[in-house]
Each structure stands twice: as C-alpha cells, then as structure tokens.
Design a protein that fits this description.
The protein is of the alpha/beta class. Helices cover 36% and strands 18% of the residues. The chain has two domains: 234 residues, 3-Layer(aba) Sandwich (Rossmann fold); 186 residues, Nucleotidyltransferase, domain 5. It is built from 16 helices and 15 strands.
Length: 442
C-alpha cells in the first residue's frame, strides 16, 4: 500500500471520524497507486459514496493543482457524492486552513453545509473538486472540452454508451489521469464491459462482505431479500450484473416463454390497453388480451399513426364491440384523457391508467412499475401465450430497472423512443384487474 494511501486512511479516520473498513481501504488505495482505471460495484448501503467522497478530498489535499470531477447522469445525482464532500469539509476545523474560502467567496466553513448545490470546492494548494452532469439528453456533448485529473463517474450503468464515450476521452487529456466507475450493475453496457477487461482494477463488495465488515446485518439483508424482486436483490445486494444479455427488466427467456401458442375458443374476459400517442414518432397502440382459467392470451393489436384522438376512440370501440365482458385501460396522461372521457360518455367499461400513481405495494416506485412486474410474473410463470409480434418483443427488451431515492424499484423507459407497444401491453394486464380475477395474489 502506498504511503499516500496510509496517510489518507489515517487522516480520514482522525480528521473526519470515519473508519475505513478493509474493502474501503482497498478502494482508497486506487486513488494513490499507479493504476488508471477502476470499476466499483458494491451492495447498497455499504457506504461507497461516502468512501469515494472522503478519498476524493484526500486526493485533492495530497496532490497539488489537481482537478477532481464528479460526473453523474443527472444534476441531482451529482449532489450525492458532492454532498458528502461538503459535509465532511464543514465538519472538520482543520479544513479552515486547507479550503480556499476567499476564492469561493465564503466567510465561514460552516456555510458549506448549506451549499449542497455548489458545483465546485477549491483548495489552497490549487486543487479542486467539482461536479458535471453527463448530459444524457444532449448525448454527452456538453461534457466535451472538460478535463479532470481524477474522473469519478457515479451511477455509471445509467449512462448510455454513446454518452460515456465522450466522458472517457477525458483520459487522453493527461497521461496521469484516472477514472473510476461506480454504480449498481443494472445494465450490461460499458460498465459490464470494463469490469471484465484485464487492464481495469475491479472492486466488488457484496452483502456478505458488508456483513462480515459490520456495515450491514444479516437480519436487514433477509428483510430486503423478502421484500425485493429477485432481480433487484441480485443487483443491489449481491452486486452482480444481470445474466440477461441485453437489458435486464424482462429476461429474454421470459419473452420466449410468452411466445408459446395455445388455442382458446371462449375467453372469460377481455382487457384492452390503449396507449395514446404523445407526439413526435409515437404511435397510438391498442392491445387486446384475453383471460381464461387464470391464463392470459395475446389476441390482437391495432397501431394508429394519426394524431386525432377521435380516431383512437373509434378504433377502440370497434375492438371492444367485437368481444364480451371487456375492460378498456387508457393512459390518461396528456391526450389520453380525451379518449378516456369520450369512451366513458359512450358507456364503455373504461378505466384510467396513470403511470405515476401510487402502487399497492411499497416495493415498487409507481403503478406502471408494479403493472410491469405483473406482466413479468405472468411471462415467467408460464401463464402468458401467443405473443408472436416482434414489435412487442423488441420493446420489452428495452426497459431497464433503477432504484428510486425511496429505495423502491422503478421501471425506466428506453432512451430512444417511447415504448408504445410495451406500454399498451402493460396496461392490458394491469394489477387491479389481475387481482380481481384471481390470476395473481400480490
């Protein structure tokens, strides 16, 4: 272990009152060794963000005239590590002589506690720590022209490969520049690739290590295991990448199962999901599924590329009139409210689908996520048949998962296009209908 590492570990404990556990000490060593690139995936609540923040401070103090950049997918997520940085500096009197308060136009170090939105901290030795968003919506072009000596990429799995490529080029700006990727291993993108390359340092801390080091308890882990979907637990606590080869929300093997065929003559009931186009390249999609003996069957779909909501109403009526015992689920956000209102006026059995409404279970971030997991469970438990349409299969593979700030699991739409077919299918199997029919018990 380098002398700088030993000094940093000592200072973190004695100045900031934070004792680094063995795995955290290994991470700290990367900040001062001669390695250039590293990936860190650790179970949630292990303390990786605070560890990174304190190590970043010591890197800036020990090395003169170095720029530390904290880069994350969104502005809010840049504040996570930076918040730890500012709180640590504000809690340590020794920082009065180290942080350049005059340059930052601050009169008291304690003000840092109220400056969580600050983008930059400067030190008297010429070093700095600053934040930068990855500019996901702008495909990363806003990061062009920036360069840091130490690049900390937080929640890297949430950054698209195209955007990350513009961040990665920062390494060529300096022969000694370092880059650290941190995050939960949700997606098999650049994070997965780099974690498997021989020239990258790799740090994996699962829940077993966290329990052994005293960061978590086995009771807390078992509680999470019992209340999280299996996939979420594997990512968040086993710190494992999902095995599925593309996107992780809906495994390919589940979609393949849903493509099995089975003939049904009479259905117990029919559900119709109506996803109304919001504009741009969106389509309005109507999906029809049938229920028979606690099994679900894809029946038909209709794609509408016109923006006239009355056309959507007309098509929904034509389909609904073909079947008995139908329920129409309509996405009422935006133009969908007009479709819902008109169908209700015409006395159809129509119900609102509001993606961000409150779910029945607190393990899910919203109603759409919960409804997606109903669909996922139907697929995985061999209860769904006849999904042969490639448009549905393609869109279902593009959904990803994330963990919200409330620690509930959240379904994330693909970046390139609104998932018209996938959303329509999710509506068609939405939770209240399933529970009432006894298909699921959740």
């Amino acid at each position: 272990m380098y002398e700088e590492t030993e000094y940093a570990i000592w200072a973190i404990e004695n100045w900031f009152g934070f004792r680094l556990y063995p795995s955290q000490q290994k991470i700290a060593d990367f900040f001062f060794n001669d390695k250039k690139k590293a990936t860190i995936k650790a179970c949630t609540r292990y303390g990786k963000s605070q560890t990174i923040a304190l190590c970043a401070i010591m890197y800036a103090i020990i090395n003169n005239n170095k720029r530390v950049g904290i880069i994350a997918p969104t502005n809010d997520k840049t504040k996570i590590i930076m918040g730890y940085v500012l709180n640590a500096l504000a809690s340590c009197d020794k920082m009065n002589n180290i942080v350049d308060l005059d340059l930052m136009q601050l009169t008291k170090l304690e003000r840092l506690k109220r400056e969580i939105s600050k983008h930059k901290v400067t030190f008297k030795n010429g070093s700095s720590i600053e934040v930068l968003t990855a500019d996901v919506k702008g495909k990363g072009f806003a990061t062009m022209g920036w360069a840091f000596d130490l690049n900390i990429i937080d929640e890297t799995a949430e950054i698209p490969d195209e955007v990350f490529a513009k961040i990665y080029r920062m390494l060529v700006e300096s022969p000694t520049a370092k880059l650290i990727e941190i995050g939960n291993p949700w997606n098999l993108n650049h994070f997965f690739e780099h974690h498997n390359l021989p020239d990258w340092e790799k740090y994996t801390i699962d829940w077993k290590t966290a329990v052994k080091e005293g960061r978590l308890t086995e009771e807390a882990i078992e509680d999470q295991r019992n209340n999280l979907p299996e996939l979420a637990f594997r990512v968040l606590y086993d710190a494992e990448f999902p095995e599925d080869a593309d996107k992780c929300a809906m495994p390919k093997e589940y979609i393949d199962k849903a493509g099995r065929t089975k003939e049904v003559k009479d259905y117990d009931s029919i559900n119709i999901g109506v996803d109304v186009a919001r504009g741009g390249t969106d389509y309005s999609v109507i999906t029809v599924v049938g229920y028979k003996d606690a099994e679900v069957f894809f029946i038909e779909s209709k794609t509408i590329d016109k923006r006239d909501i009355m056309v959507v109403v007309g098509e929904a009526r034509v389909i609904a009139d073909k079947y008995k015992n139908t329920t129409i689920m309509v996405d009422v956000v935006g133009l969908g409210s007009g479709v819902y209102d008109r169908l209700k006026e015409l006395n159809y059995n129509v119900r609102e689908f509001i993606s961000n409404s409150v779910p029945r279970s607190s393990r899910y971030h919203n109603y759409k996520t919960e409804s997606f997991f109903v669909l996922r469970e139907l697929f995985g438990n061999d209860k769904f048949y006849n999904l042969l349409d490639s448009k549905y299969k393609l869109e279902l593979r593009k959904y990803t998962l994330d963990m919200s700030s409330e620690k509930s699991i959240k379904l994330v739409d693909p970046e390139d296009k609104s998932p018209d077919y996938g959303d329509s299918l999710i509506m068609a199997v939405s939770i209240p209908r399933q529970i009432r029919l006894g298909v699921l018990n959740i």
